[in-house]
Amino acid sequence: MSQQFDVVVIGAGPGGYVAAIRAAQLGFSTACIDSFVGKNGKPSLGGTCLNVGCIPSKALLQSSENFHALAHDFAEHGISVEGAKFDAAKMIARKDGIVDKLTGGIGFLFKKNKVASLHGLGSLKGRVDEQWQIEVKNGDTVETVSAKHVIVATGSSVRQLPGVAIDNVKVLDNEGALNLSETPARLGVIGAGVIGLEMGSVWKRVGADVTILEAMPTFLAAADQQIAKEAFKTLTKDTGLKINLGVKIGAISVADEISIAYEKDGKAETLVVDKLIVSIGRVPNTAGLGADAVGLQLDARGFVVVDDHCHTNLPNVWAIGDVVRGPMLAHKASEEGVAVAERIAGQKPHVDFGVIPWVIYTSPEIAWVGKTEEQLKAEGIEYKKGSSGFAANGRALGLGHAQGTVKILSCAKTDRILGLHMIGPMVSELVTEGVVAMEFKAASEDLARIVHAHPSLSEVIHEAALAADKRALHG
Ligand code: FAD
Ligand code: NAI
Fold first, then answer.
1. What is the predicted pLDDT for the residue at 5?
2. Best substitution site from 51, 135, 154 to test ligand 1's pocket, by max atoms within 8 Å of Cβ?
3. What CATH homologous superfamily does 171-280 map to?
4. Which CATH number fits domain 4-158+283-353: 1.25.40.10, 3.50.50.60, 3.30.70.3300, 3.40.50.1980?
5. Which of 418, 346, 340 is nearest to 376 (CA)?
């Protein structure tokens, strides 16, 4: 007799594990199947985000930023250290410790909420008497569990670049880029997207000569272009990343050195590096899920097709996170997970896709929520805007990070906030003010009238909101 549950979740990333916990909280007997194996060869919960994504990358970003500050920035504070040293292996070990702590924490949360945790590859086998049959394969061990509802949360993997194999020794994906035990002298990156910029920044700060090759002629095409242009300038001039836009990658040969032929402005060029990161986007994980066998509909790019409530074409089969349409972000996956569990319980949850924050954790950080100026223009929406910089902000000057801008966009008629775009210190934290304001349908005048602590970085948002009404006090 197979184990029977109300809800089975396939995948224990931030989409799946959160969905499983919420389903259990709502009184459903719940199991979560996950196949991820950690660096130590043992099952590790938390998916891409906790094991090889958000969390380890932010740990390395902080370590490398600390080293860079010690080596270059502290002198102006009157602090100097002779011969500051960097130990890559120790930085990686610290990162591994954080990953172990958080992935282990999911196991604890599963126990606390009575979620059955099953290790193995889950695949849909069919439906018997309204019960979905799900096979769990772990090596030679195969068991079948059944459930009324299935939530597919299998996430995504790196998109491969034709003509070069990722071996995570010389040619790296996110896993390899997060595990280098020493700083490469020359690091190449293909793709100036979020991973390329974050991982490029990490290794640049600790001494690598980093060159990024990007196919698109526009830098960070999804971001507001005023902010993107400022980011390009800072990341190339101050951080020292060499970013080549509008390139066409040609043949790549991997020997002791890696040689990448590319074309830019009609000219043939070659980049020679010691390590190469491939970060050209990610593809949904559906291989082995049994989609064909049960008729689960996938789109032309392999994403599971879902409606606005994350319901698939199959009865009681749901899908969330990176494996479905929308931004590949951990917080988007988690919110969908909560919403699906609540919908199974008969509630009417709603995820507002127009108010999902984006953050790129470079230095300075880049963050936004809502529409860009380019989107507003394309959609013919009349808007007004206000901008303010960090250059004259007392807190930013004290921190030694007085670079960047905040821009607020609001409806020309109603003043309702349509977008908040920023580059600057800790804007990963500041962007939440925009998220809250937009969720509460605030006007830019609301932010202008709210008291912001002094001195604080948030005063730049206040000033931008005042500027939208042409009454900036410090601008
Ligand atoms: P995943 O986290 O990918 O989890 C899916 C899980 O399902 C995995 O454990 C996988 O092994 C397992 N699985 C797959 N198929 C099966 C199967 N058939 N049976 C059982 N298990 C299966 N997002 C942010 O919001 N902020 C960030 O700062 C950020 N940084 C990132 C940095 C990097 C380097 C990368 C690569 C990604 C980053 N992301 C970030 C994106 C974020 O990691 C993803 O959006 C998020 O993990 C998606 O969650 P998910 O639950 O959909 O899938
Ligand atoms: P991405 O989509 O952000 O960037 C990929 C880049 O590669 C694009 O600029 C694209 O134009 C370029 N590209 C594609 N094909 C190319 C080619 N053949 N040659 C040269 N350039 C090419 O994807 P990335 O960086 O791999 O990250 C995947 C996803 O993971 C992100 O979109 C994001 O959703 C998530 N992520 C989020 C983070 C965050 O929230 N801070 C951090 C890291 C990843």
1. 98
2. 154
3. FAD/NAD(P)-binding domain (3.50.50.60)
4. 3.50.50.60
5. 418
For a mutational test of ligand 1's pocket, the pick from 37, 48, 325, i.e. the residue with the most ligand atoms closer than 8 A to its C-beta, is 48
Alpha carbons 136 and 125: distance in angstroms, whole number: 10
For tokens 């990610």, the residue is 282
Q: Is the backbone peptide bond immediately before 184 cis, with ω within 30 degrees of 0?
A: no
Token pair recorded at residue 75:
């002198």
Rg (C-alpha) for the chain, rounded Å, is 24
Q: How far is the CA of 452 from the centre of ligand 2 (A)?
A: 35
| CA 426-429-434 angle, 5° bins | 120
Alpha-carbon distance of 350 to 301, in angstroms, equals 26
* Those residues with Cβ within 8 angstroms of residue 50's Cβ, 6 or more apart along the chain or in another chain: 13, 14, 44, 99, 102, 103, 106
CATH architecture of the region 364-468: 2-Layer Sandwich (3.30)
What separation, in Å, do the N-terminal and C-terminal C-alpha atoms of the chain show? 72
Q: Per-residue pLDDT tens for 235-249? A: 999 999 999 999 999
User: Do the first three CATH levels of 4-158+283-353 and 171-280 match, i.e. the same topology?
Assistant: yes
pLDDT in tens, 312-330: 999 999 999 999 999 999 9
Residue 330 has φ and ψ, to the nearest 5°, of -60, -45
What pLDDT, in 10s, does the model give residues 336-367? 999 999 999 999 999 999 999 999 999 999 99
Q: What are phi and psi of 384, to 5 degrees?
A: -120, 160
454 is catalytic: yes
In the three-class reduction of DSSP (H, G, I as helix; E, B as strand; rest coil), residue 400 is classed as coil
* List 72, 350, 454, 474, catalytic entry: 454
* CA–centroid distance, residue 46 to ligand 1 (Å): 8
Question: What are the structure tokens assigned to 433, written together?
Answer: 């003010």
**pLDDT beyond 90 at 2:** no
Task: Tell me the CA–centroid distance for residue 48 and ligand 2, in Å.
Answer: 15
The secondary structure of 263-321, three-state, reads EECCEEEEEEECEEEECCCEEECCCCCCHHHHCCCECCCCCECCCCCCECCCCCEEECH
Domain positions in the chain are: 4-158+283-353, 171-280, 364-468
